[in-house]
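To whoever is on call:

I kicked off a structure prediction for a single chain this morning and the downstream step that reads the tokens threw a length-mismatch warning. I double-checked the sequence; it's 218 residues and nothing unusual in it as far as I can see. Pasting both halves so you can look.
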Amino acid sequence: MKAWLFDLDGTLLDTAPDLHRALSTLLAEEDREAIPLELMRRYVSRGARGLVRLAFGEVADDTALTTRLVEHYARDIASATRLFDGLEPLPEALKARGLTWGIVTNKLEVLARQVLDALPQAAVLQDCALLIGGDTAGERKPHPAPLLLAADRLALPVADIVYVGDALSDIEAGRRAGMTTVSVGWGYVPDDVAPPTAWQADHHADRPRDLLALINTL
């Protein structure tokens, strides 16, 4: 394999604390009680609109609420966001194997770049070769278009690329793109979704050290 691609929220970065602060601010503005972080974090993979629906249910103005949530989030986007514990050696492990790596996320590209730039551990991720956001390819995962665009930009056949994610939509997109897929066990999985081991990924990494081991074997 010549390249590895990763989802961002829930796979590389624990962004839930900053998203939770933004959602709590929005709820306070609407005179609603805050949602516990541990509940909210399970739904991060559904994006800002999914978090609004978790907090407010089906409401007519969810687009306006989503816009406000994103605005709150963007104002202080990475004060508590960190690489998941155990992933710090990942970029060096990829580099040691001569592997190119990049990020394909459903997060808006501008927000993803802002997170990466503001992250206290930004230097660790400086070798990232490309970033594809949820608005970059005109489609979002589980559509394969973002991953196919990444393959095109890397000038690599899809058979030479591994895609790693913490959401069922990640694995579905990777399979549809023809890439090798890896599910991870430390991310954000809603209560109404089967566990990652049931997603039929080609490989599963329950812990970060399992992912590091896969890099040396695939």
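Update from on-call: the warning came from a stale cache, not from the record. Cleared it. Sanity check on the structure: The mean pLDDT is 96.
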